[in-house]
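--- STAGE predict ---
source: upstream dedup step, 1 unique chain passed
mode: sequence only
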Amino acid sequence: MSLGHGFPGAPLLFETLDFEAYPGDVVGLCGPSGSGKSTLLSIFAGWETPRLGQVERIGIGRTSWVFQNPHGVAHRRAIDHVAFPFLAAGNTRAQAVELALPILESFKLSTVSDRPFRELSGGEAQRLMLARAVATKPSLLLVDEPTAQLDLRTSQTVNDTLGAVAQEGAIVLIATHDPGTRDACTRVIQLEDYAPAAAEMLA
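--- STAGE serialize ---
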C-alpha cells in the first residue's frame, strides 16, 4: 500500500501510510481537519487515485459510503430508504419492509419509520443513511463523521451498531473526530503521524 496523497500544487497530506484491514475490523481514521481523512475514504472507495502507492482490494464485493451530510429523497418515508436495497435484491415489498424494520430499530428509528425524509431531524437523517448502508450488506463500509450531529447517547448506539456490522463480516472504515467513536474502533490510524513533517522528524 504505502499510500501518499496530496492535491496538485500542494504538499502531500500524508505519506508512507501502510496497513491491512480484515472483515470484522473497525478502523478509525483520525486527525485534525485537513489531515486527509475524507480524502483517504475517497481513495479506498476508488474515487480518488493516490499520488503514491496503491490500494489492494481482496474479496471486497459491495462498498457503501455514508457521507457526513445526509442526502435522501425528500418525500420518501424513512422505511422506504431502508427497504429499497431489499427490493433491489428481488424481495417483495412486504418482505423488504419486514427486513428493514429491525435495522431501523437498531438505529432507534422505529418511531419515525413512516415520516418523510424532509421531516427528519439532522441526527435522524444521519442515522437513516447509516441504516440504509447497513441494508446493502457491504463488504466495505466507509463512514464520514457518523456522530457529528448526534448527542452522546445516540452516538453510542451508532458506534455499537457499526461494530455489529463489522462482526457480520464487513470492514468498517470511519473518519472521525469523536473520542467515543475512536474508542469503539478496533484500531486507530492517526493521520498526522503520516504527514511529511512528522515523517521527517521520525527519520
